[in-house]
Amino acid sequence: MIVNPKPVQHPLPPVYMATSSLDGVEVGARLGINMFLPIHTRAPEQVVEYAQAYWDGLKKNGHEPKSRELGLLIPMHLAATTAEAKSRAEAGVMSLFQDDPRPALGLHRLADATRRRAAVALAHCGGNDGRVRHGL
User: What residue spans define the domains of the chain?
Assistant: First the structure.
């Protein structure tokens, strides 16, 4: 990758890659890039499978897993009230599934799980003081 103008920050900030496929996980692990996995478009079992493939792939490609990070992409929306945030987040996340003509793939179940995960994320990340909380 060529970056112009040249970065002035040293060391360079970490690079992250987001992927929702095993092929993407393989590429990220081969390159030794920090990874983000989505919880809103994959079943929990897939997220676990992809995470394990990432850690295994790092080792296979000579990268030290302890020096890499694996994060989860969690859909959320901040608003003036919790009810407004939940409503907006749900509408945005659900739009990912509304036009999919493949009901046999169980996307309605995945959408329900996403709705629950978004609610949990909202419940654990925000507070009355407006600060974001970590540790989901």
Answer: 1-73, 77-126
Lowest mean pLDDT among 24-33, 59-68, 93-102: 93-102
Q: Which residues is 18 bridged to in the sheet?
A: 36
> Which pLDDT does position 39 carry in this prediction?
84
- Kind and range of the H or E element at 24? helix 22-31
Q: What phi and psi, each to the nearest 5 degrees, are found at residue 18?
A: -105, 135
Residue 61 · residue 30 · CB < 8 Å: yes
**What would the pLDDT profile of 34-48 be if each residue is shown by its tens digit?**
999 988 788 888 999
Q: What is the pLDDT of residue 119?
A: 54
Closest by Cα among 82, 116, 75 to 96: 75
pTM flag (> 0.90): no
Residue type, 120: V
Map tokens 């996403």 to a residue.
114
- Over 58-95, what HEC string results? HHHCCCCHHHCCEEEECCCCCCCCHHHHHHHHHHHHHH
